Amino acid sequence: MSYIVPIGPYHPALEEPIHAKLYTEGEVIKDAEVFVGYNHRGIEKLCTERNAIQTLVLVERVCGICSHSHALTYAMCVEQLNGIECPKRGEYIRVITAELERLHSHLLWLGVACHVIGHDSMFMHIWDERELVMDLLEELSGNRVNYAMVTVGGSRRDIDDELKAKLLKSLDKLKGLMDRIVEIALNDKTIALRTKGVGVLTKEVATRLGAIGPHARASGVDIDVRRDSPYCSYGDFKFDVPVVESGDVFARVVVRALECYESIKIIDQALNNLPDGPINLGNKLPKIQKGVAVCRHEAPRGQLSHMVVGNGGFNNHRVSVHVPSYKNTPTIPYMLRDNSVADAGLIIASIDPCFSCTDR
Asked: Which helix (H) or strand (E) holds 89?
């Protein structure tokens, strides 16, 4: 029997609204369509009515999980337009915050993935470790979600010796906890049965559809903006870019788990080699010089791009935000085909979608 099975716009496996229409033969998905646009907030238009400092506050709220990524990418655009060079210490602190945010995001997703497949004990265990990262972010910034660590020309908060020691100690603890999480994730039968061979995205299709971030790297596409086009002092750090060839949901679990180790490695290097000097160039309200700037950042979900157009005044003339989920969402119908309806929620969640970002 042929059926059309709707998933969403609201679904227990997905925290944000998406509508997937599944065309099935019995329990097998033969084709699918995906619809977004349920959460539009007009942030790009609001940016045109605000100056650079006000816009930093606004773009942080494009996404709760990768808020620092948006503030960082926007600030880099304004700095590019104004010819501003950030102090090295400020850049290192930006990197530390960005990698803590990546840890937070990946652990959140790993926990949600376990919840979706019904492994709630693993879900709670992973989110318990995520709390450690949240505590570190709160120690660093004073906030657990929107960190307000970026200003035009550097970082807003410094890291003293006491905080540095605390961060290094907590990172050692987190690395040990990650060993246990990875051991379970790679060897647990429940996770393997629900993820191996499910929702496969081949390298050829991932490249053709423009997949990015961990989602693409799980399909063998070896890309990472931090390594391929270094910015914000990322060229100073040694780290690997995990790439897996199988392209299934299990590969996406593996890539994100391994990336947590690389983030810890980067933070450790940044803390141990933190340069002396100022963290910013002072809290001045800059004009947004006439011109166009485009900057990229490897956000937790993949390449994030901001375009800022200035007309020489204090307010933005135009801000365009191009988010990773917008690029990864077109891969969903391909991944759903020939899988069961029971796996649809997990496959959609496996791209780590942020439809709040997509519908900015």
From this structure: helix 88-116
In 142-213, DSSP assigns E strands to: 150-151, 154-155
CA distances from 57 to 61, 68, 176, 192 (A): 7, 10, 35, 41
E strand segments, 240-301: 291-299
Residue type present at position 251: A
Structure-token match 């990864």, residue found = 328
C-alpha distances out from residue 100 to 7, 122, 256, Å: 33, 21, 14
Question: Any residues with CB less than 8 A from the CB of 204 and at least 6 apart, and which?
Answer: none
Q: Check if the beta carbon of residue 311 is closer than 8 Å to that of residue 288.
A: yes
Tell me the CA distances in angstroms from 192 to 111, 119, 184, 188, one per residue in order.
Answer: 15, 11, 10, 6
pLDDT at 13: 61
- In eight-state DSSP terms, residue 239 is -
- Return all residues near 309 (Cβ < 8 A) that are at least 6 apart: 291, 292, 316, 317, 318, 319
Whole-number Å distance between alpha carbons of 104 and 102: 5
Whether the Cβ atoms of residue 72 and residue 102 lie closer than 8 Å to each other = no
215, 251 in Cβ contact below 8 A?
no
Closest CA to 141 of 79, 52, 71, 235: 71
pLDDT in tens, 198-231: 989 999 999 999 999 999 999 999 999 999 999 9
- Count other C-beta atoms under 10 Å from residue 256's C-beta: 27
**CA gap 211, 121 in Å, rounded:** 31
Q: What is the DSSP letter of 108?
A: H
